[in-house]
């Protein structure tokens, strides 16, 4: 058939729009999007004719193709996935999943006006961090608290409000890069303060800080080296010692804790992580940490510490720019409340629940899945293997959690079979994200709670 004859077989958009199937699509997706989709299909159809002298695949059913395209376009950019990567707090997958109480609190705050900056007792304007500050003081023993969008913002605000134009003394071993362009020296510059490095990469002594103190010194700062560890011939100054020096010299001491944990993780057999309340008790002036790392709440930056300094943060113009919204505050409040009942914390806080799962339980889960899945994947050899998961988000970088993974080894040993498997799972209604290592696909089961949901994805 000639190109001309093929072109003449393409239906006119106007005619299509009058068909009942398109009237229904128009009602569902709106006129503009439907017409845009049809235009794209017409262009693609003409390209197909010009390039291959044939009509497009959807020649007999333009409505079905339009529906498929419109539905595909509906998919959220934030699609729920199965995180079987073995990293519990995976930054690229949104870090902590929220507790049910936090999810409910956020929906309530979204549906109705709330007392965000409104004090019901004296019917005046309250301050938006007030309710959370009370909770945070109860949990950490601090005098006051301030909440911003994330911990990077918290560090910027602490430096800008407490040290602008002055010097901040930091150990050379703690000039960290967190990733995503967050480097302590750069943040100092942005906050308008001068970095005064002391000590060496591996060893910093109290006398190094003491000798650095002068009329320009505004702050003594410690940064938790969350994402790396220096071992061997090392020395660093404890927060207690630095707080002591700060008190003697009348200079505030601030600590960027990164993750931090409000509960002692060693009671669950997990590696120790510094606790904000211990630093407050040691006399540190301000401590900042993330809401969505080990705390298990929403993305937020939490600063706790001395009343006078928190008041400076609250009244700084940057606080207005960095303040958290009502949904974050609602989720954070609900999450913090869970810490008031530590006995139920493991059950209620997903992050802690996943981190404390027992290897034997994960192994048993792997074996259940193995027996159901092996017949469905004849081209692969399935096995349950011990593996080591990680906490993620720079928390406890060298510590690994023993668990179990379901592995898929292609029987023909080909990398292309693995790549196809990964692609097929990425294309599932709820994508399944594992990792390829050692010629096999690894599904680390530590974060798998919805077993039936996963089975559904892997069966299709
Ligand atoms: C993670 C981290 C930050 C940044 O926290 P966000 O909440 O991701 O902004 C800053 N400092 C340290 C030490 C960290 O570990």
Automatic annotation (TrEMBL):
InterPro entries: PyrdxlP-dep_Trfase (IPR015424), PyrdxlP-dep_Trfase_major (IPR015421), SelA-like (IPR018319), SelA_trans (IPR004534), SelA_trans_N_dom (IPR025862). One of its GO terms (biological process) is conversion of seryl-tRNAsec to selenocys-tRNAsec. It catalyses: L-seryl-tRNA(Sec) + selenophosphate + H(+) = L-selenocysteinyl-tRNA(Sec) + phosphate. GO terms for cellular component: cytoplasm. It is found in: Cytoplasm. Residues 7-46 form the L-seryl-tRNA selenium transferase N-terminal domain. The modification N6-(pyridoxal phosphate)lysine is found at residue 293. Its EC number is 2.9.1.1. One of its GO terms (molecular function) is L-seryl-tRNA(Sec) selenium transferase activity. It holds the Pfam family SelA. Gene3D superfamilies: 3.90.1150.180, Type I PLP-dependent aspartate aminotransferase-like (Major domain). Pathway: Aminoacyl-tRNA biosynthesis; selenocysteinyl-tRNA(Sec) biosynthesis; selenocysteinyl-tRNA(Sec) from L-seryl-tRNA(Sec) (bacterial route): step 1/1. Keywords: Cytoplasm, Protein biosynthesis, Pyridoxal phosphate, Selenium, Transferase. Its cofactor is pyridoxal 5'-phosphate. It is an enzyme of class 2 (transferase). Converts seryl-tRNA(Sec) to selenocysteinyl-tRNA(Sec) required for selenoprotein biosynthesis. Homodecamer; pentamer of dimers. Binds only one seryl-tRNA(Sec) per dimer. Belongs to the SelA family. This is L-seryl-tRNA(Sec) selenium transferase. It comes from Jejubacter calystegiae. The lineage of its organism: Bacteria, Pseudomonadati, Pseudomonadota, Gammaproteobacteria, Enterobacterales. The gene is selA.
């Amino acid at each position: 058939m000639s190109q001309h004859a093929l072109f003449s077989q393409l239906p006119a958009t106007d005619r299509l729009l009058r068909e009942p199937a398109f009237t229904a699509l128009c009602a569902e997706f709106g006129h503009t999007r439907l017409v845009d989709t049809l235009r794209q299909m017409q262009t693609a159809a003409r390209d197909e004719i010009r390039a291959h002298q044939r009509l497009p695949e959807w020649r007999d059913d333009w409505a079905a193709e339009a529906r498929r395209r419109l539905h595909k376009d509906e998919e959220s950019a934030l699609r729920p996935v199965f995180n079987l990567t073995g990293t519990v707090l995976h930054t690229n997958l949104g870090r902590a999943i929220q507790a049910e109480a936090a999810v409910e609190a956020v929906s309530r705050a979204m549906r109705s006006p709330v007392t965000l900056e409104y004090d019901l007792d004296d019917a005046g304007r309250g301050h938006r961090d007030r309710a959370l500050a009370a909770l945070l003081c109860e949990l950490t023993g601090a005098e006051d608290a301030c909440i911003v969008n994330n911990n990077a913002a918290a560090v910027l605000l602490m430096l800008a409000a407490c040290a602008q134009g002055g010097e901040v003394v930091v150990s050379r071993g703690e000039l960290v890069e967190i990733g995503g362009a967050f480097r302590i020296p750069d943040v100092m510059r942005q906050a308008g303060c001068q970095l005064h490095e002391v000590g060496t990469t591996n060893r910093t002594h109290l006398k190094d800080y003491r000798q650095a103190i002068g009329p320009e010194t505004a702050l003594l700062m410690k940064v938790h080296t969350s994402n790396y560890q220096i071992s061997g011939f090392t020395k660093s100054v404890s927060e207690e010692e630095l707080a002591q020096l700060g008190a003697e010299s009348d200079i505030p001491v601030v600590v960027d804790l990164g993750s931090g944990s409000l509960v002692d993780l060693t009671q669950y057999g997990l590696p120790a992580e510094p606790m904000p309340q211990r630093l407050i008790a040691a006399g540190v002036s301000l401590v900042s940490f993330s809401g969505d790392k080990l705390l298990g709440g929403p993305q937020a930056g939490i600063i706790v510490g001395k009343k006078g300094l928190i008041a400076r943060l609250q009244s700084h113009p940057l606080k207005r720019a960095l303040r958290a919204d009502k949904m974050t505050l609602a989720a954070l409040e609900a999450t913090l409340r869970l810490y008031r009942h530590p006995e139920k914390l493991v059950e209620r806080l997903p992050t802690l629940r996943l981190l404390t799962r027992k290897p034997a339980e994960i192994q048993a889960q792997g074996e259940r899945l193995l027996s159901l899945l092996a017949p469905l994947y004849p081209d692969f050899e399935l096995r349950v293997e011990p593996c080591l998961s990680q906490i993620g988000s720079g928390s406890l970088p060298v510590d690994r959690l023993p668990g179990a993974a379901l592995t898929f080894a292609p029987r023909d040993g080909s990398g292309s079979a693995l790549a196809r498997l990964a692609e097929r799972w990425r294309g599932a209604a709820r994508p399944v994200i594992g990792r390829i290592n050692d010629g096999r696909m690894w599904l680390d089961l530590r974060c798998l709670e919805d077993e039936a949901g996963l089975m559904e994805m892997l069966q299709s």
